[in-house]
Write a structure and sequence with these properties.
The chain has about 550 residues and is mostly helical. The chain is built from 33 helices and no strands. The protein has a domain of about 50 residues. The longest helix has 14 residues. The chain binds one DNA strand of 10 nucleotides through helix 3, helix 5, helix 7, helix 9 and helix 11.
DNA sequence: TTACCATCAC
């Protein structure tokens, strides 16, 4: 019997096992009377979890009498990674009241689960437990806490935890640096990067990841390039992980050439590297190349996952060409992932944006599980087609399903009101959003509200809404208001706004463009000239040349 | 045997 054990053991340590092979291994373990051994049980449980078979994983857990902490951690992690947080927390509680002691990995895992479900209160409770269990100085727990607090935007608390550790290890330094990165506090991140080197800690590729994730616009390109240069100079190992981050960073900064060079430096790019390249091109507005590289990936035998399929669908939605979208739909069906919630939502959006609302609705109706994003997608699609009543009905359905609407839901609803000119409904949703759901109105919501009111001729109300906002008001909100004044030929109010803007914010491009067009349309060349003078004062701060071109056209 | 770190649909 022992002859069989060695090959089984070697199979158990391979992470890439399919579900059917896992079942065979499980049967072999049982046959060899090893299923009660927590070591073997843990191995099999993890294989089930990797293959998304939580039912078998749980069955195995329940059937194993001697539960090691490894087995406990594995089942808690399996549920958390599948976003089944309630089960995860219930098991965590059961563990605490059992005879087995939780260890640092248990807390790291459960802290991450709190973060994934955006539960600050629970995270604080877990933090308390960490201290209570005497793990207050543990590196694993604390690096998890640092990254969890900063992912929830509480970078001060993260920093507090970090400062409480005497001689942080590399993981802790990295967690803190990427914490600053994800909170947009780039300066602090770079300061810390310097400090760590001053105390003799050598950064690795992940330190660099922390520094450059989130570098989003071309003005920061030089920061990214400097850090990339640093990696090369210090001979840091640029693995797939790090290269993927570099690729997306360069693409976000619209530096396609450098992105492609980094990608090409990989001997065998993995799925995430391909995804970074493809989604990066798409997000930079180059959807054609995004689809091209997707075909390249299929050509070399790559197997795109659901995340990548959703992104390529978004690319064809942006192009508003249905053919590639249909092909991807077919691919998804052939590979059994068309029912995936991410892919389905992307399909709905793609069909709607390409002019096939019916098909989108069909996909929505066929979904077995729906989340906020699926509802948001279908609501905004219906709204775009002017089917406001249907969109509102979907919103009701969503509430009945106990799904909590978010800011995108309300943006979609307000957009639907806008497309159908439903002022009262729009006011009501706006009120509901701020008062009942405590969602802070963003630029997008305000633009819809201003348009909705303004297009209906309620210019005063729209103006009062904008005036009530804290300064500085985003230029697209002013733009929406000005274009409403323009189309209603309310030059009196336009004058008032123009005066206000020229006194307070003469530097923003978009409403100057609008104003110059309005003035030019009226033949008021003196005013156009005045704007030009203002532009001169603000020179160097203006983002583009479109405005000056508009002026030149007008003057001609 | 596990931790911190990459692509992400509206």
């Amino acid at each position: 019997m022992h002859i069989h054990l060695k090959p089984i053991l070697s199979h158990l340590t391979k992470p890439s096992q399919t579900l059917s092979r896992t079942r065979i291994l499980h049967a072999l373990i049982i046959k060899n009377r090893l299923s009660y051994d927590p070591f073997y049980a843990t191995r099999i449980l993890r294989l089930y979890a990797i293959n998304n078979d939580l039912i078998s994983a749980r069955y195995l857990f329940d059937k194993t009498p001697n539960r090691s902490i490894y087995l406990w951690n594995s089942i808690i992690r399996a549920y958390a990674q599948a976003n089944e947080f309630n089960d995860s927390f219930l098991l965590f509680k059961r563990l605490l009241s059992s005879e087995t002691q939780p260890d640092s990995h248990t807390f790291a895992c459960i802290a991450r689960a709190c973060t994934d479900r955006f539960d600050v209160r629970a995270l604080r409770l877990v933090h308390g437990k960490v201290v209570a269990f005497g793990l207050g100085l543990d590196f694993i727990c604390n690096s998890a806490l640092v990254s969890c607090y900063s992912k929830l935007g509480l970078v001060e608390e993260a920093s507090c935890v970090f400062r409480g550790i005497d001689k942080p290890d590399l993981a802790l330094w990295n967690a803190m640096i990427s914490g600053y990165g994800s909170c947009g506090d780039r300066v602090k991140g770079i300061e810390l990067f310097n400090t760590m080197q001053n105390v003799g800690m050598r950064p690795d590729g992940y330190t660099v990841v922390g520094l450059i994730t989130g570098l989003a616009d071309d003005s920061l390109l030089n920061v990214g390039q400097t850090i990339h240069g640093f990696c090369v100079k210090c001979g840091l190992i640029l693995n797939h992980h790090v290269c993927s981050v570099l690729v997306s960073m360069y693409l976000r900064c619209k530096n396609m050439g450098s992105a492609f060079r980094v990608f090409e430096s990989l001997v065998q790019p993995d799925l995430v590297s391909w995804s970074s390249l493809i989604t990066g091109f798409s997000q930079a507005g180059d959807h054609v190349n995004a689809l091209f590289f997707f075909r390249e990936l299929l050509g070399v035998g790559g197997r795109p996952d659901t995340v990548l399929l959703a992104s390529v669908l978004a690319a064809s939605a942006q192009l508003a060409i249905v053919r590639p979208g249909c092909e991807i739909h077919g691919y998804a069906v052939r590979h059994g992932c068309n029912m995936d919630i991410t892919v389905s939502s992307a399909l709905i959006d793609m069909y709607a944006k390409c002019g096939f609302l019916e098909m989108g609705i069909k996909v929505f109706n066929s979904m077995t599980k729906r989340n906020v994003v699926s509802y948001n997608t279908v609501i905004s699609s219906l709204g775009l087609y002017g089917c406001a009543a249907e969109a509102f009905r979907m919103f009701e359905e969503m509430l009945n399903e106990d799904l909590k609407p978010d800011e995108t839901t309300f943006a979609a609803l307000l957009c639907a009101c806008c497309h159908s000119g439903l002022v009262n409904e729009g006011r009501e949703y706006f009120r509901m959003m701020t008062n009942e759901f405590r969602i802070h109105a963003k630029t997008e919501h305000l633009v819809h509200m201003v348009k909705l009111l303004g297009m209906d001729g309620k210019l005063e109300e729209a103006y009062n809404l904008v005036k009530s906002l804290p300064e500085p008001v985003n230029s697209s909100i002013w733009g929406a208001l000005l274009s409403c004044c323009d189309s209603h030929k309310n030059y009196e109010l336009l004058e008032v706004i123009a005066k206000h803007l020229n006194e307070n914010e003469p530097k923003i491009c978009s409403y100057n463009v609008m104003l110059s067009n309005v003035f030019a349309g009226d033949g008021r060349w003196d005013d156009v000239q005045q704007l030009r003078v203002n532009y001169g004062q603000a020179e160097g701060k203006m983002p583009g040349v479109s405005w000056i071109n508009d002026i030149n056209k007008s003057v001609k």
